[in-house]
Write a structure and sequence with these properties.
single chain, five-stranded mixed sheet, 4 helices, transmembrane, IS6 family transposase, transmembrane helix
């Protein structure tokens, strides 16, 4: 984890025609997605949930991978929910293109897969079912698109599968 994260949310139709927001945080440097969540609305409270969850992920990365992050910055679009970064005194930057495109690239893969599944989730799906499916999706995504570090062997594995 590099400490430079692009955060974004997308409104998707998931269960019985209901719409949910899928939030992702993508590491700008490693391209990994260390966090996602599903909510029924989008608000500054959800930004707080993201920050708390990312803080836990960073602590685990420091402990397990001996990663050191001196500075953490969040890149986001102009959605009003992200005003919470200012309220919480967290370093952030509103960007429309460039680095924030990393979050959009993560969504491109997800939206491409979800488009073909609009009517294919089981009729009795619930939010937990979707969270499980997305957990699997992002696990595979991270395996395919993020370099894997084997610290004890001093090896970096990069599968480097095209996202096109």
């Amino acid at each position: 984890m590099s400490g430079v994260y692009a955060i974004d949310e997308a409104k998707v139709r998931l269960i019985k025609g209901q719409y949910y927001y899928v939030w992702i945080v993508r590491d700008v440097k490693t391209k990994g997605i260390p966090f996602f969540m599903i909510t029924s609305v989008r608000s500054g409270v959800h930004v707080l949930v993201v920050l708390v969850s990312m803080k836990r992920a960073e602590e685990i990365a420091r402990r397990v991978f001996k990663v050191r992050m001196d500075k953490v910055i969040y890149l986001h679009d102009e959605a009003t929910a992200y005003n919470a970064f200012s309220w919480l005194n967290v370093e952030h930057e509103k960007v429309i293109f460039n680095e924030r495109d990393y979050a959009e690239q993560g969504f491109r893969s997800l939206k491409h897969r979800l488009a073909s599944m609009d009517f294919h989730f089981p009729w009795n799906s619930n939010k937990l079912t979707i969270v499980r499916w997305l957990s699997t999706f992002f696990l595979i995504y991270n395996i395919l698109y993020t370099p894997t570090y084997l610290l004890d062997k001093e090896v970096i594995i990069n599968v480097n599968v095209s996202n096109e």
